Amino acid sequence: MSDELKQEKPERTPYQNLMRKIAIGIMVGGLSVSAVVFVTAPPEVEEDYLGVYVTSIHNSKRYLLELERIGGKAAVVAVELSDWFKGLWHGRRLAGTLAVLSVGASLLCFLAARIPPLDD
Length: 120
Fold this sequence. Notes:
Layout: H1 2-5, H2 14-40, H3 61-71, H4 73-87, H5 91-114
Helix pairs in contact: 2-5, 3-4
């Protein structure tokens, strides 16, 4: 009776094996590179040559008020989104971005490996 409950798993095709190997390679390589970037990235402190904290003009209230007056709230949101996106590609945030992208790409490859072959 227990033999009847066991279901036979279909064998993996060479394509599925290749996609699984690619997914593992992307995951291991991406996480390794992100770890190296995280360890070697300098701390995120904005200082000028005198050691005084420097703020961007985009962070000032006056700039945001003028931007909202000229372009509306949508312009302010667009600028904030743009600044956030630019920040993802520097320093330790780059390490997190690389880790997320490598995990996402490897998951896509694992999902592609699960697609059954189109025989017949």
